[in-house]
């Protein structure tokens, strides 16, 4: 498993829910989301691009 860290522009609990739902759809992926820090930490064996694509599909800015 690899740990990835992303900065995701989130402004509310709904944003957090959307991010968690997007990542929950990926097999073998665990995440923690910090709204105040705008940080998403993902533990997964999937490639970086697969995880980033799932986050981008939420419509939130990802870096």
Describe this structure in words.
Helix content is 33%, strand content 29%. The protein has a single domain (2-56), classed as 2-Layer Sandwich (Alpha-Beta Plaits), CATH 3.30.70.100. The chain is built from 2 helices and 3 strands, in the order βαββα. The chain is globular. The termini are far apart. Strands 1-3-2 form a 3-stranded antiparallel beta sheet, covered by helices on one side. By secondary structure, it is of the alpha+beta class. The longest helix has 12 residues, at 13-24. Residues 1-63 form the HMA domain. It comes from Diversispora eburnea.
Distance between the termini: 21 Å
Going by CATH, the architecture would be 2-Layer Sandwich
Q: Would you list the SSEs in sequence order as H and E?
A: EHEEH
Q: Total number of β-strand segments?
A: 3
Proportion of strand residues:
25-35%
CATH topology: the name is: Alpha-Beta Plaits
InterPro entries: Copper_transport_ATOX1-like, HMA_dom, HMA_dom_sf
Domain HMA: 1-63
Organism: Diversispora eburnea
Keywords: Chaperone, Copper, Copper transport, Ion transport, Metal-binding, Transport
């Amino acid at each position: 498993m690899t740990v990835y860290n992303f900065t995701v522009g989130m402004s509310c609990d709904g944003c957090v829910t959307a991010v968690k739902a997007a990542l929950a759809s990926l097999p073998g992926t665990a995440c923690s989301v910090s709204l105040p820090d705008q940080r998403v930490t993902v533990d997964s064996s999937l490639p970086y691009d697969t995880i980033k694509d799932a986050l981008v599909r939420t419509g939130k800015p990802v870096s």
